[in-house]
């Protein structure tokens, strides 16, 4: 096994014979290497043109094996009879391999790709020239002031916005459906939206496109509308839409939609002409001003009777306010396009801009931006201002810089923290990075840590065996648990009367980082044998407060008879009362109800207190155990008989008496504790 | 009928068993007309509240036995409703400020101000002042204690305060200095036996086997309430109260013992998590964390080698202190459990390896 002392940075990256030496190969990484972290290793593979996939399949060329490889991956290797490499083997491959450019297949493939890119770039060039000419012509003719900005000063995202459907990357199927629906619109309208059509879409008067930003939703909607012969009218979040605006802008309340159809032309509030060849695009519907449900409701009302197609676009399909819309429109979710689907488009644009950007850098950027094409274009165009080429490392930095700040869930943080990589010798995360993780959710992360810190197979003891391993494991657990205990003390200072917020970093260390530093390791993962779980503390804590409140109520009622406080009540009285107010019902059933109620009355206990008393039991008095031995008939007997009579009452609840609560002054500054008596 | 503990609770200083000299002192204090603020302290079930009630009766007469409960509601600045139960007679009232947690200071101030401003209406009252009994005084926040200090001086003319606590260690010095300290020590085993005999005679039965009551007294560890409750339970179970008997432990104690055994049976991450589940169960069922820790520790210590006992108790004390300061008790309970497991296992293997030599 490749165990032994892990030695970060102990091996240099070999000089490759060819900068694209891993081209055409796909890799899977599993387990931990000794000199490189997982991230560094995958980077290497990508840097030299290889592909890295997460799960091995029959098409995987190599699996790079480190220590503690995942069992599922090992199984897949066996099943598919895959080639494996250790760390040195992998480095050696980089140092020695030369892609077989003479291989016809590979050669042709590369050539074909480059031809396609060149052709597409030429097409872009040609189109721009044409537009420029047109603009000039218009200017000569002193037409209206053109709203076209000179191409050179346009943002890349606008300049290279797709003009044909072919140029839109990804989501082909969805786009085709949209196209079909728009093409069918006239006949759907004629049939009264009764014929479902090929995609079962033609009964809908509206479509709802949802998906993450920058993947071409708006673009696709406009293009499809234009190609189907419609004039898109777009309303988006920047037109502060309200219910009224939605109605006005479509003249729903003034002129009926039929008016637009039969009258020659109608104009909406925004001054756009509406004809039967208009298509309404409601962009960013989830941005309709917060709380303005009216907007969506008006939109739905509009959809119910519209005679022009309506395309709605939103980012978050799950948003509460979109509920009515989802029910009234055909849903077309858009996905993030795969890197492969975007690559050639971006390469084309880069080529056209005379930028040298290798394909693996493009992939890197796309990954970093989570397929947000808009963002990648913006990154490239800013880069172009100072550079004409971009290499792998620069690409990496660039996408790091632009990394969307995503908030990790406490699950993710805990998984990362306790996982085998964060503290391994090859890890590159600084203390600051680890603290960042804590700050994703400082109130929850520590709870998650406490819940899950014992679920790992600690990496620190993976080379030990027998009693020594057991003892070391317990020592690590001990250190982690006492650090968690420290963390709670710090937490008490932070949330105590003095609110020492400045202690947060210390809390991060005690509650999260130190415990993980002892016990990190494999096994705690989502699929591992001990999956992470949600902290039990929250549920237990609220259960405790509930029972405590009930116990306090009970104590208040018993107070006239009993001198004990609530703790003694729980610890001594309840076990002592049990044989008188609960046990008889278990042993004798309904016949005992009378004596039980007399006992309860002696102590001013009501029917709810009886439940509390049972609920508070543990062990052989545990409520489940006890209630199993009391028949439902007995229980209803108790309720009925109790309700049938009057009972002595210790006091009435203030709220029942209609007392008005007295407002307490704010706590004010704490009195000076050190002042002399 | 109520339980014996409540039935046969002494109602006046004369009826009180044991600590006779204390009773005499309280009697003369009540007669003197110069009644100070007082702090009654002593372990649970030693008879503090009983003694306070008797003293009040001595001060004001039978009227203090006519109790009613008045529930008051307060609204915090954050608009949370707080219920406060005030037990009162015409002459005194009793509050438990720990019911309102961190708001104890403002609630106490509000209530005391009110009382101080109303004069004694009963013209036949023997004293001009009213007495305010504050229960669980040792869980008053420091803020509340500090605020109480001024109040105790300011309203001396028409109010006396009696604090009731288990120990004085958590009360600030200025409070202690304003009170007459009254220690109510736990009764001895013989004293408890006497009380039980007295109860038996009131119940019209004779204790034939004295060893049984002695056993009960020993088991109660100075808690007379516990002794009387067990006494009655056993009588009900066995009828005759003739030995040999086994004193049934309350549900939570049995549960704690099981947890203690889990710790000594196996030491592993999984076992810690299983123990955690049980600890949660105890906590959520209103067993105070310190009681849990003490009971489990006692069981563990019973089971382990002599040489480990001191160490284990030391860590129990350390984590008990931590629990008092911290918020999430389970963190500290669990840290103790892990510590004990580690100590235990090291000892275990220490012996094993030694035997190989
Ligand atoms: N699938 C795509 N193919 C080609 N270019 C794209 C694609 N998606 C986005 N782009 C580029 O990004 C720009 C922005 O895309 P678009 O406005 O359609 O994004 P969107 O999905 O509507 O995002 P948002 O949800 O933020 O409104 C386009 O002008 C185009 O230059
Ligand atoms: N001096 C006494 N003589 C006889 N019985 C007594 C005496 N003192 C207490 N008891 C009995 O012990 C029981 C418990 O006493 P009490 O409630 O006063 O204890 P406490 O010290 O206030 O306990 P805690 O601190 O738990 O509130 C009483 O109900 C009563 O039956
Ligand atoms: Mg958009």
TrEMBL record, chain A:
Record InterPro entries: AAA+_ATPase, ATPase_AAA_core, BRCT_dom, BRCT_dom_sf, DNA_pol3_clamp-load_cplx_C, DNA_replication_fac_RFC1_C, P-loop_NTPase, RFC1
GO molecular function: ATP binding; ATP hydrolysis activity; DNA binding; DNA clamp loader activity
Swiss-Prot/TrEMBL keywords: ATP-binding, Coiled coil, DNA replication, DNA-binding, Nucleotide-binding, Nucleus, Phosphoprotein
Gene Ontology terms: biological process: DNA repair; DNA strand elongation involved in DNA replication
SMART domains in the record: AAA, BRCT
Subcellular location: Nucleus
Top-level taxonomic group: Eukaryota
Coiled-coil region: 103-141
Record-annotated BRCT domain positions: 17-97
Primary subcellular site in the record, as a coarse category: nucleus
A GO cellular component entry from the record: DNA replication factor C complex
Family: Belongs to the activator 1 large subunit family.
Name of this chain's protein: Replication factor C subunit 1
TrEMBL record, chain B:
UniProt keyword annotation of Isomerase present: no
Compartments it resides in: Nucleus
One CC-aspect GO term: DNA replication factor C complex
Superkingdom, natural source: Eukaryota
Domain AAA+ ATPase positions: 34-187
Keywords: DNA replication, Nucleus
Keyword NADP (UniProt): no
GO molecular function: DNA binding; DNA clamp loader activity
Record-level GO BP terms: DNA repair; DNA strand elongation involved in DNA replication
UniProt-listed Pfam families: DNA_pol3_delta2, RCF1-5-like_lid, RFC_C
Main localisation: nucleus
Family: Belongs to the activator 1 small subunits family.
The protein's name in its UniProt record: Replication factor C subunit 5
């Amino acid at each position: 096994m490749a165990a032994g002392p892990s030695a970060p940075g102990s091996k240099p990256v070999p000089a490759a014979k060819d900068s694209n030496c891993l081209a055409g190969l796909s890799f899977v990484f599993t387990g931990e290497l000794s000199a490189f972290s997982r991230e560094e290793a995958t980077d290497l593979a990508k840097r030299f043109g290889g592909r890295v996939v997460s799960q091995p399949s029959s098409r995987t060329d190599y699996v790079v094996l480190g220590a503690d490889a995942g069992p599922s991956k090992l199984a897949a290797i066996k099943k598919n009879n895959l080639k494996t490499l250790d760390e040195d083997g992998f480095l050696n491959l980089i140092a020695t391999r030369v892609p077989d450019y003479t291989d016809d297949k590979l050669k042709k493939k590369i050539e074909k790709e480059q031809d396609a890119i060149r052709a597409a770039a030429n097409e872009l060039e040609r189109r721009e020239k044409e537009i420029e000419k047109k603009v000039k012509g218009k200017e000569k003719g002193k037409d209206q002031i053109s709203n076209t900005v000179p191409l050179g000063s346009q943002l890349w995202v606008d300049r290279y916005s797709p003009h044909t459907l072919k140029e839109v990357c990804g989501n082909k199927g969805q786009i085709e459906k949209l196209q079909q629906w728009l093409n069918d619109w006239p006949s759907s309208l004629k049939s009264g939206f009764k014929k479902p059509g090929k995609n079962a879409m033609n009964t809908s008067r509206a479509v709802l496109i949802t998906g993450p930003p920058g993947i071409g939703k708006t673009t696709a909607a406009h293009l499809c509308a234009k190609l189907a012969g419609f004039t898109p009218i777009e309303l988006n979040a920047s037109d502060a839409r309200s219910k009224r605006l939605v109605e006005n802008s479509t003249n729903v309340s003034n002129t009926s939609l039929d008016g637009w159809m039969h009258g020659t032309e109608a104009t909406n509030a925004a001054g756009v002409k509406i004809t039967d060849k208009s298509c309404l695009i409601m962009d960013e519907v989830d941005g309709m001003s917060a709380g303005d449900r009216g907007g969506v409701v008006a939109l739905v009302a509009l959809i119910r009777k519209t005679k022009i197609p309506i395309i709605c676009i939103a980012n978050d399909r799950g948003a509460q306010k979109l509920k009515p819309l989802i029910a009234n429109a055909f849903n077309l979710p858009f996905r993030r396009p795969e890197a492969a689907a975007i690559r050639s488009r971006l390469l084309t644009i880069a080529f056209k801009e005379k930028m040298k950007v290798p394909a693996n850098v493009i992939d890197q950027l796309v990954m970093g931006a989570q397929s947000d094409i808009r963002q990648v274009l913006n990154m490239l165009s800013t880069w172009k201002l100072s550079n004409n080429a971009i290499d792998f490392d620069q690409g990496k930095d660039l996408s790091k810089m632009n990394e969307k700040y995503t908030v990790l869930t406490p699950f993710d943080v805990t998984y990362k923290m306790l996982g085998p990589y964060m503290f391994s010798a090859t890890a590159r995360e600084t203390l600051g990075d680890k603290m960042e993780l804590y700050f994703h959710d400082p109130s929850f992360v520590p709870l998650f840590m406490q819940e899950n810190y014992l679920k790992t197979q600690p990496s620190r003891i993976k080379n030990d065996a027998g009693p020594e391993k057991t003892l070391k494991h317990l020592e690590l657990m001990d250190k982690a648990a006492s650090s968690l205990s420290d963390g709670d003390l710090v937490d008490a200072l932070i949330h105590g009367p003095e609110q020492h917020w400045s202690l947060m970093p210390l809390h991060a260390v005690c509650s999260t980082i130190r415990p993980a530093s002892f016990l990190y390791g494999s096994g705690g993962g989502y699929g591992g044998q001990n999956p992470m779980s949600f902290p039990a503390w929250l549920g237990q804590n609220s259960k405790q407060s509930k029972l405590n409140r009930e116990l306090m109520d009970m104590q208040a009622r018993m107070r006239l008879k009993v001198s004990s406080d609530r703790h003694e009540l729980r610890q001594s009285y309840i076990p002592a009362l049990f044989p008188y107010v609960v046990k008889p019902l278990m042993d004798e059933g309904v016949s005992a109800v009378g004596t039980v109620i007399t006992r309860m009355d002696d102590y001013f206990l009501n029917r709810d207190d009886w439940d509390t008393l049972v609920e508070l039991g543990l062990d052989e008095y545990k409520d489940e155990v006890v209630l199993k031995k009391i028949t439902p008939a007995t229980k209803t007997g108790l309720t009925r008989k109790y309700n049938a009579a009057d009972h002595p009452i210790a006091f009435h609840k203030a709220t029942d008496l209609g007392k008005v609560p007295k407002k307490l002054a704010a706590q004010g500054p704490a009195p000076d504790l050190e002042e002399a008596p | 009928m109520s339980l014996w503990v409540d039935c046969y609770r002494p109602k006046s200083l004369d009826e009180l068993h044991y600590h006779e000299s204390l009773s005499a002192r309280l009697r003369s204090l009540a007669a003197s007309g110069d009644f100070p603020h007082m702090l009654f302290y002593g372990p649970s079930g030693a008879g503090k509240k009983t003694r306070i009630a008797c003293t009040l009766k001595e001060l004001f007469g039978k009227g203090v036995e006519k109790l009613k409960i008045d529930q008051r509601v307060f609204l915090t600045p954050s608009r949370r409703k707080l219920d406060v139960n005030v037990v009162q007679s015409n002459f005194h009232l009793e509050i438990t400020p720990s019911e309102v947690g961190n708001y104890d200071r403002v609630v106490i101030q509000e209530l005391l101000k009110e009382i101080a401003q109303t004069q004694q209406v009963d013209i036949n009252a023997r004293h001009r002042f009213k007495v305010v009994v504050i229960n669980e005084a040792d869980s008053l926040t420091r803020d509340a204690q500090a605020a109480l200090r001024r109040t105790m001086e300011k309203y001396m003319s028409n109010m006396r305060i009696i604090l009731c606590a288990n120990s004085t260690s958590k009360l600030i010095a200025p409070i202690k200095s304003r009170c007459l300290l009254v220690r109510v020590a736990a009764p001895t085993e013989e004293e408890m036996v006497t009380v039980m005999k007295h109860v038996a005679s009131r119940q019209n039965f004779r204790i034939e086997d004295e060893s049984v009551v002695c056993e009960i007294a020993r088991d109660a560890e100075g808690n007379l309430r516990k002794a009387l409750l067990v006494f009655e339970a056993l009588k009900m179970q066995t009828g005759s109260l003739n030995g040999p008997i086994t004193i049934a432990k309350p549900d939570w104690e049995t549960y704690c013992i099981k947890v203690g055994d889990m710790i000594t049976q196996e030491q592993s991450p999984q076992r810690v998590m299983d123990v955690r589940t049980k600890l949660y169960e105890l906590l959520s069922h209103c067993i105070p964390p310190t009681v849990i820790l003490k009971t489990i520790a006692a069981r563990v210590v019973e089971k382990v080698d002599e040489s480990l006992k001191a160490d284990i108790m030391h860590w129990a004390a350390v984590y008990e202190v931590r629990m008092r300061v911290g918020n999430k008790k389970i963190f500290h309970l669990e840290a103790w459990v892990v510590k004990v497991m580690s100590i235990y296992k090291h000892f275990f293997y220490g012996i094993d390896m030694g035997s190989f030599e």
